[in-house]
Specification:
CATH architecture of one domain: 3-Layer(aba) Sandwich
Shape: rod-shaped
CATH topology of one domain: Rossmann fold
Strand order of the largest sheet: 3-4-2-5-1-6-7-8
Helix content: 40-55%
Distance between the termini: 124 Å
Radius of gyration: 36 Å
């Protein structure tokens, strides 16, 4: 992958962090702290959570081909068909084998043994107007935790209504995660494509996107090996610089490091508390031992005095008897 959508620049740091969290997890086991063990276990899972891309687009805009081209997958992660394949949301993630699991009437989880899916999970929205019927599921379950939402339009007509209707459901604070893609640019001449790019830019600005990011691509050219003309190099560069390899990735690592630091401090505080308790117990035990020793000595002296007094009294009584 000469222009991969995944940056490997920070992979060594991620691997090192994984080792540290593994050691931290073992430490929580050793000190038998159940709550922290569960917390660190969740943290270990989060370190390996892939980036999540939500893909939005109507039918026949080349959405499936776009996803396959973007990920450079060896197999078609998204089936390409002349007619719509589904009216459900599809969450596509890594798995040891290909599986399809219905999580709800509107959501399927699909797994593939594709290495790229270890790094990027895809949420493929329905390619029909049913996307509006499912908007709550998408906006509540996936958009808030997504790293990127990609609105895919047909290059010839970026004004189809249902995608823009769905756009209106996305809260203002989440719109910073959005990019726009004009797919199938190979079907247009450069002049008309530029007109549609400017039209899409204006359309997005009118709907609250101050500086819309727009990429014109051709999945067909990309999959044919025409990388210079496909437009995917520019798109992947943007993603690696701003999502998978940019500040967002650094922040993701830093957040995990901060979480580790917090947990480590809790463990240190717990150990310090136990150490103080242990030292207090030692001192208390020492005080008790000293008290017992002192009391033993006093008791022994008292017993000795009592015995001496008894013997003295006995001798006195005995002597008096002898005199009589």
């Amino acid at each position: 992958m000469s222009h991969s959508v995944i940056s490997r620049e920070y992979s060594p740091f991620k691997a090192r962090l994984d080792e540290l969290v593994k050691d931290l997890h073992q430490l929580t086991h050793d000190i038998q702290h159940q709550q922290l063990t569960e917390t660190v276990g969740d943290l270990r899972n989060r370190i390996h959570d892939p980036f999540m891309f939500v893909i939005v687009g109507e039918v026949k805009v080349g959405k499936s081909s776009f996803i396959n081209a973007l990920l450079e997958s060896k197999t078609d992660i998204c089936a390409v068909a002349p007619s719509p394949m589904t009216d459900t949301i599809q969450q596509i993630i890594y798995g040891e084998e290909h599986t399809v699991t219905a999580l709800s009437p509107v959501l399927k989880r699909i797994t593939y043994p594709e290495e790229i899916l270890r790094e990027i999970a895809i949420v493929d929205t329905p390619g029909t107007n049913t996307i509006i019927a499912h908007h709550q599921e998408i906006t509540e379950k996936f958009i808030p935790t997504s790293d990127l939402a990609v609105f895919v339009f047909e290059a010839k007509n970026p004004y189809r209504q249902s995608a823009w209707d769905f756009f209106q459901f996305i809260k203002e604070e989440w719109r910073k995660k959005i990019i726009f893609v004009l797919q199938q640019k190979d079907l247009m001449n450069a002049a008309d494509l530029e007109i549609n790019k400017k039209g899409l830019e204006q359309y997005a600005k009118e709907r609250g996107i101050e500086n819309p990011k727009i990429f014109a691509v051709s999945a067909k050219l990309e999959q044919e090996g025409n990388f210079d003309e496909s437009g995917f190099v520019e798109l992947r560069n943007y993603i690696t610089q701003n999502i998978t390899g940019g500040k967002a990735y650094i922040f993701k690592l830093l957040n995990n490091i901060d979480a580790c630091t917090t947990i480590n401090e809790k463990i240190a505080d717990g150990i310090s508390l136990r150490k103080n308790q242990y030292e207090y117990d030692l001192k208390f035990r020492s005080d008790i031992n000293k008290t017992l020793e002192d009391q033993t000595r006093i008791s022994q002296n008292n017993v000795k005095m009592l015995v001496e007094n008894l013997i003295g009294a006995y001798d006195q009584v005995t002597n008096e008897k002898k005199k009589n």
